[in-house]
């Protein structure tokens, strides 16, 4: 890595080593999006001070002495929150040595933790930042166990301090993928999951990790104490999990760490929700949920939030037969909390989140389809995923006191023709250049110069 | 037709087959007696009514834009396109498109629908005959499952009226493509676009060398890729020099390319490799119709213009493999700006539903670096330019009198995220109407399943 950096020029990478401090920001005359589900407000103002939002909306005054940016013709929004990404875990998917997404030959499952593997200098960080993504969840993909391991919450600020909440959630695969990893059947996936939670419970009690709040943290959805590193209780020989895996699942079974469960088929969703009868403390988030609309009332009644792609509409497998772009809208109508996140195609990336959200607005004009209002659609890629991620009410919105993550766009942010003009994270303006912008500038003209293109930078 | 293989069969059989094959107007029974067309198209358009689209903004696909335009079609063909003054015959059904937009039917030059259908189970993996690095003898149409639910999604969400199904890219020469009308049929022959030429799918770079190198077979390197390709062309030329060449499926395809009847669609990411392929084409006397994926076309857009080769590209896919590392979102705009031909393609059962949105993204990325491409030209990226690179532009791809009435009425600006097809006609037949659930195709696979007939 160091060789790569010593060779690389570019503002973004240079700035990586020198985090700037928060600045005061005021943007006036812009269309302001609060991110809380409300409709955009024209002619609004946003004020950010010391890294936090002071005020946003119509009739907001710019504090005396603060220089304002004229946002006429532009839109101001909170930064987007991208759920279920592999930001910083991979440079090139098909270059296996650059790819830390899945550990298919690892002896561990639940114990895997993405936090120390995340590389904020990966280009996808920069591309996503330029697309207005300011925070994200980073998840491992299951490789050798139904348990993918522990995901983290990151910010996309241009520094090495990306991981804000390590071990924010555990990720488990149920459904077809879980069945495959478990040895060929959903029966095994369910047995493995129950056994793992029982082993964790037992280990946690023996090691006095349960009942003493040793894993409890101040941040919702984030285990500050690494449960793997505490407790030395002896274990019976009759166990499947390694000690490290069992320890990692202690905060899951106590409900101190969220459990993300990927599941798609309606029947599978109900089976997963039923787990809470046996393990009442589980703090679950459903991921995928392609057939969620068929059992939306049950999901809503369980109060379990959902993270799903917006545009899955093909029976890609036998657990996704009822796929429809109306899935999100119908679940929201039933009272389910739904964040848009995750990706369908190999070419899809976090910066296309607004395209997913915008398409759901388009559905409102298709008879028989269920879409989202503009405000709901934007919230589904900002405040809703931030809340599902455990960041509370202060991320993904421009309400007073919220994190100073602000994006200035050259138009309607859900429209495919729009892009960020300026991006602030915690009140710090971010560079938007990257490998792609450098290539773009180098090849803007193909006229033969005095020297080859390799000298243009 | 791309291939008219003289087969040793009885003329009676030829005649009976030809009688079933109601293909393009050009295939007279006299030709059928001598030129048997194997697996001929049996596509027949469905009934339509003479229709006048009025009041909409019309993009003709050829770079024209008409506000408050009129599009007339009847008997499967475009009759006239003009402004509000165009006379509308009395017997035409008027469709009020006020506030809406009309474009030619969307065309995807790079699809695997049918040969990699959903559900994406292993039993459906029919797109790569990855048992030999050159398989020009295989034909994609022999893999296409007409019940792929993806065809219906491409129609109703994407306005796709024609598409080219390509073999995959495991092989240097993957086989023949097939161009389809996006009209459901019990058979692939019933979807085949009448009169469309065949293409040979070729692939550069990582995929062939990885697939065969991993088996310790040639090619395992990019230079191996070229050596195998060149020797294969040399052998094909030898075949063509034979006085009475016997049947040889591979060489029939290759000689079709070398004689100009079969087009070449070449999967190729890197600029330097595309430049080498252009030289290989010169060496053996064939033309590349389009480079597909072509994420580095922006580095050699001038060469592509000079060679009149299209680039069939995504708007912004990048990074999934090493040869896609230098992909940039401004690629399409930079190619267009150099005067070379841009086609927006999908290579994806989801992306095919949003070619219009991908084009709009690419247009906007150009605008931000000072390249302003008018909407009416961007529309051609997924209509006429695709048709040209597929060799069907005399028949479809633009709204011109005499062409097939493949038409989309959009409920808003097709370059906006908020717009979707309102109605889609193929050969003048109304195949989709957002307001009419009965005009929404449902594949056999989806009958009786949860979500059958849903809006999707």
UniProtKB/TrEMBL annotation, chain A:
<dbReference type="InterPro" id="IPR032466">
    <property type="entry name" value="Metal_Hydrolase"/>
</dbReference>
<dbReference type="Pfam" id="PF01979">
    <property type="entry name" value="Amidohydro_1"/>
</dbReference>
<feature type="domain" description="Amidohydrolase-related">
    <location>
        <begin position="301"/>
        <end position="424"/>
    </location>
</feature>
<dbReference type="InterPro" id="IPR006680">
    <property type="entry name" value="Amidohydro-rel"/>
</dbReference>
<feature type="signal peptide">
    <location>
        <begin position="1"/>
        <end position="22"/>
    </location>
</feature>
<keyword id="KW-0732">Signal</keyword>
<protein>
    <submittedName>
        <fullName>Amidohydrolase</fullName>
    </submittedName>
</protein>
<dbReference type="InterPro" id="IPR051781">
    <property type="entry name" value="Metallo-dep_Hydrolase"/>
</dbReference>
<dbReference type="GO" id="GO:0016810">
    <property type="term" value="F:hydrolase activity, acting on carbon-nitrogen (but not peptide) bonds"/>
</dbReference>
<dbReference type="InterPro" id="IPR011059">
    <property type="entry name" value="Metal-dep_hydrolase_composite"/>
</dbReference>
<keyword id="KW-0378">Hydrolase</keyword>
From TrEMBL, chain B:
<protein>
    <submittedName>
        <fullName>Amidohydrolase</fullName>
    </submittedName>
</protein>
<dbReference type="Pfam" id="PF01979">
    <property type="entry name" value="Amidohydro_1"/>
</dbReference>
<dbReference type="InterPro" id="IPR032466">
    <property type="entry name" value="Metal_Hydrolase"/>
</dbReference>
<keyword id="KW-0378">Hydrolase</keyword>
<feature type="signal peptide">
    <location>
        <begin position="1"/>
        <end position="32"/>
    </location>
</feature>
<dbReference type="InterPro" id="IPR051781">
    <property type="entry name" value="Metallo-dep_Hydrolase"/>
</dbReference>
<keyword id="KW-0732">Signal</keyword>
<dbReference type="InterPro" id="IPR006680">
    <property type="entry name" value="Amidohydro-rel"/>
</dbReference>
<feature type="domain" description="Amidohydrolase-related">
    <location>
        <begin position="334"/>
        <end position="417"/>
    </location>
</feature>
<dbReference type="InterPro" id="IPR011059">
    <property type="entry name" value="Metal-dep_hydrolase_composite"/>
</dbReference>
<dbReference type="GO" id="GO:0016810">
    <property type="term" value="F:hydrolase activity, acting on carbon-nitrogen (but not peptide) bonds"/>
</dbReference>
């Amino acid at each position: 890595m160091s060789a790569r950096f010593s060779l690389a020029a570019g503002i973004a990478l240079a700035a990586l080593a020198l985090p700037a401090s928060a600045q005061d920001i005021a943007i006036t005359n812009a269309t302001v999006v609060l991110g809380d589900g409300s409709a955009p407000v024209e002619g609004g103002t946003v004020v950010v001070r010391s890294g936090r939002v002071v005020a946003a909306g119509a009739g907001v005054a710019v504090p005396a002495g603060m220089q304002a940016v004229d946002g006429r013709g532009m839109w101001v929004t909170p930064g987007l929150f991208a759920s279920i990404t592999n930001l910083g875990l991979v440079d090139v998917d098909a270059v296996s040595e650059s790819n830390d997404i899945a550990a298919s030959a690892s002896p561990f499952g639940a114990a895997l933790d993405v936090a120390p593997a995340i590389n904020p200098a990966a280009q996808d960080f920069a591309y996503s930042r330029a697309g207005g993504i300011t925070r994200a969840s980073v998840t491992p993909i299951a490789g050798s166990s139904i348990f993918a391991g522990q995901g983290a919450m990151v910010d996309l600020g241009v520094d090495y301090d990306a991981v804000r909440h390590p071990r924010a959630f555990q990720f488990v695969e149920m459904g077809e993928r879980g069945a495959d990893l478990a040895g060929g059947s959903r029966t095994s996936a369910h047995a493995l999951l129950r056994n793992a939670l029982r082993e964790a419970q037992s280990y946690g009690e023996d090691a006095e990790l349960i009942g003493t709040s040793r894993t409890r943290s101040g941040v919702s959805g984030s285990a500050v104490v690494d449960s793997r590193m505490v407790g030395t209780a002896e274990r019976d020989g009759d166990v499947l999990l390694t000690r490290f895996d069992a320890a990692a699942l202690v905060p899951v079974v106590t409900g101190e760490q969220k459990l993300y469960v990927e599941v798609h088929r309606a029947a599978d969703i109900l089976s997963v929700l039923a787990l809470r009868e046996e393990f009442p403390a589980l703090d679950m988030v459903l991921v995928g949920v392609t057939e969620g609309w068929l059992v939306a009332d049950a999901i809503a009644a369980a109060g379990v939030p959902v993270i799903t792609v917006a545009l899955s509409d093909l029976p890609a497998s036998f657990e996704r037969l009822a796929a429809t772009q109306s899935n999100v809208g119908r679940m929201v109508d039933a009272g389910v909390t739904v964040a848009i996140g995750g990706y369908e195609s190999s070419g899809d990336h976090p910066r296309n989140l607004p395209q997913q959200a915008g398409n759901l607005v388009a559905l409102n004009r298709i008879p028989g389809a269920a879409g989202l209002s503009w405000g709901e659609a934007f919230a589904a890629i900002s405040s809703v995923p931030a809340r599902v991620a455990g960041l509370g009410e202060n991320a993904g919105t421009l309400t007073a006191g919220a994190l100073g993550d602000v994006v200035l766009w050259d138009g309607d942010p859900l429209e495919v023709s729009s892009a960020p003009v300026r991006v602030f994270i915690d009140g710090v303006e971010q560079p938007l250049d990257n490998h792609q912008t450098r290539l773009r500038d180098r090849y803007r003209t193909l006229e033969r110069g005095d020297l080859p293109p390799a000298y243009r930078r | 037709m791309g291939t008219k293989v003289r087969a040793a069969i009885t003329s009676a059989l030829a005649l009976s087959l030809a009688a079933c094959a109601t293909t393009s107007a050009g295939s007279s029974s006299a030709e059928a007696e001598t030129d048997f067309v194997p697996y001929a198209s049996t596509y027949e358009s469905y009934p339509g009514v003479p229709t006048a689209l009025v009041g909409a903004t019309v993009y003709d696909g050829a770079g024209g834009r008409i506000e408050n335009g009129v599009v007339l079609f009847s008997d499967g063909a475009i009759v006239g396109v003009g402004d509000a003054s165009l006379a509308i015959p009395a017997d035409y059904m008027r469709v009020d498109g006020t506030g809406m937009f009309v474009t030619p039917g969307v065309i995807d030059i790079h699809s695997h629908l049918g040969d990699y259908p959903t559900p994406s189970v292993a039993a459906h993996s029919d797109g790569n005959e990855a048992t030999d690095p050159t398989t020009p003898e295989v034909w994609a149409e022999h893999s296409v499952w007409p019940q792929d639910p993806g065809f219906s999604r491409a129609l109703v969400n994407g306005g796709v009226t024609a598409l080219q199904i390509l073999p995959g890219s495991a092989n240097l020469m993957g086989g023949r493509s097939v161009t389809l009308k996006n009209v459901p049929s019990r058979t692939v022959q019933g979807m085949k676009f009448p009169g469309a030429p065949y293409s040979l799918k070729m692939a550069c770079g990582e995929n062939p060398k990885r697939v065969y190198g991993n088996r310790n077979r040639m090619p395992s390197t990019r230079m191996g890729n070229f050596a195998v390709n060149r020797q294969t062309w040399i052998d094909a030329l030898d075949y063509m020099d034979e006085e009475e060449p016997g049947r040889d499926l591979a060489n029939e395809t290759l000689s079709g390319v070398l004689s100009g009847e079969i087009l070449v669609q070449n999967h190729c990411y890197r600029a330097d490799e595309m430049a080498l392929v252009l030289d290989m084409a010169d060496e053996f006397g064939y033309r590349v119709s389009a480079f597909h994926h072509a994420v580095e076309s922006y580095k050699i857009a001038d060469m592509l213009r000079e060679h009149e080769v299209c680039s069939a590209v995504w708007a912004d896919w990048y990074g999934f493999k090493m040869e896609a590392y230098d992909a940039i979102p401004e690629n399409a705009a930079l190619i267009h700006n150099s005067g070379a031909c841009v086609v927006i393609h999908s290579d994806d059962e989801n992306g095919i539903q949003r070619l219009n949105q991908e084009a709009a993204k690419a247009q906007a990325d150009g605008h931000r670096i000072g390249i302003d491409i008018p909407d009416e030209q961007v529309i051609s990226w997924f209509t006429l330019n695709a048709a040209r690179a597929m060799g069907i532009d005399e028949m479809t791809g633009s709204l011109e009198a005499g062409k097939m009435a493949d038409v989309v009425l959009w409920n808003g600006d097709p370059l906006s995220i908020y717009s979707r097809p309102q109605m889609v006609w193929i050969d003048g037949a109304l195949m989709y109407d957002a307001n009419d659930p009965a005009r929404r195709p449902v594949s056999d696979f989806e009958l009786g399943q949860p979500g059958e007939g849903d809006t999707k």
